[in-house]
Amino acid sequence: xxxxxxxxxxxxxxxxxxxxxxxxxxxxxxxxxxxxxxxxxxxxxxxxxxxxxxxxxxxxxxxxxxxxxxxxxxxxxxxxxxxxxxxxxxxxxxxxxxxxxxxxxxxxxxxxxxxxxxxxxxxxxxxxxxxxxxxxxxxxxxxxxxxxxxxxxxxxxxxxxxxxxxxxxxxxxxxxxxxxxxxxxxxxxxxxxxxxxxxxxxxxxxxxxxxxxxxxxxxxxxxxxxxxxxxxxxxxxxxxxxxxxxxxxxxxxxxxxxxxxxxxxxxxxxxxxxxxxxxxxxxxxxxxxxxxxxxxxxxxxxxxxxxxxxxxxxxxxxxxxxxxxxxxxxxxxxxxxxxxxxxxxxxxxxxxxxxxxxxxxxxxxxxxxxxxxxxxxxxxxxxxxxxxxxxxxxxxxxxxxxxxxxxxxxxxx
Length: 413
Ligand code: RNT
Ligand code: ZN
What we know:
Layout: H1 3-12, H2 18-25, E1 30-33, H3 66-79, E2 84-89, H4 111-120, E3 124-127, H5 147-171, E4 175-179, E5 184-185, H6 193-206, E6 216-221, E7 232-233, H7 237-247, E8 250-254, H8 268-274, E9 278-282, E10 284-286, E11 289-292, H9 298-309, E12 316-320, H10 329-348, H11 352-360, H12 364-374, H13 379-390, H14 398-408
Parallel strand pairs: 1-2, 1-12, 2-3, 4-6, 6-8, 8-9, 9-12
Antiparallel strand pairs: 5-7, 10-11
The chain binds L-rhamnitol (RNT) and zinc ion.
């Protein structure tokens, strides 16, 4: 018997059907963020990254243009098993060397991304870029006290929403458009309310036009603090929870945007009692940074368990959001993407009926023992079989492709 068959037996002994777990996990898309490939630079070639987010590291060979980024994504796509979407930011527009103001972007500037997505059978997701721009230099965009600046960013968001709807329509799968604004105060404000009123009103203007949900889904992303916005963020969790519930929007929970001991896995079931759908930005906070490469941590597993245990497969949109410029950027994509899929598969392989029975019987020792047992079940054999079926290298074999690409492509840039 091979390793996979032995693993199937071990899981079956706990009442788990490996084949149905594999089939289930293979239907859940993960949206891969294009911005890990070039340190959130984009192609505008003007301003440095700001908005309270930062990429550190100088690993050589960062993608310098859209063709290089797509070539790198092709490699990442070969290493991450399962259905994938691509998440694009507005600064990745291709304007043929022409300077196009962000409030004048149109679907034509993303036609090559749409072609790439279609060729790969991947849906697209989208984001307005409300940072790294002269009009964001005082730290406020759509909640800016200056009406002219506010209107510029509102126009940018409306343009992005139309682009997103076009992507969704063309590709036949709704584009999840995520709105994150860096707006916040470095030091204690006297008035926390006025900017929040402006943010609420700006969002209402951005979303004024009805767009069919089969083309576009809007998500709003909260954050506790950013670098240079330590004292108060306008778009706090309470703000966006209220906004999303009252306006029927998706709430985006970023794993790195809360207090260090607070976890988003615990929030999912509460949010989905009051919201139809949510978006996750799966990330890893480390002290002051919210964007380290996603590892197979207890929290990542807990996020996946919440999705699987409560059948949220279609109500939770999974996106990755991290950026590390200190290591091979494609490896960073592959590690995080593979880990997300591993966590989903681990969760789908839980002995759910035994766990539920133990909990319902009040047998908490049995529940604990079962959960701990899961950690050392022969998961690797199932994972490797999944990779094999997806045509993606399993085990550590995938890393050879990273080294080949380093040698043949990255080192020559
Ligand atoms: C920033 C947010 C946001 C960004 C991307 C690039 O803290 O997490 O989602 O990371 O839009
Ligand atoms: Zn995020």
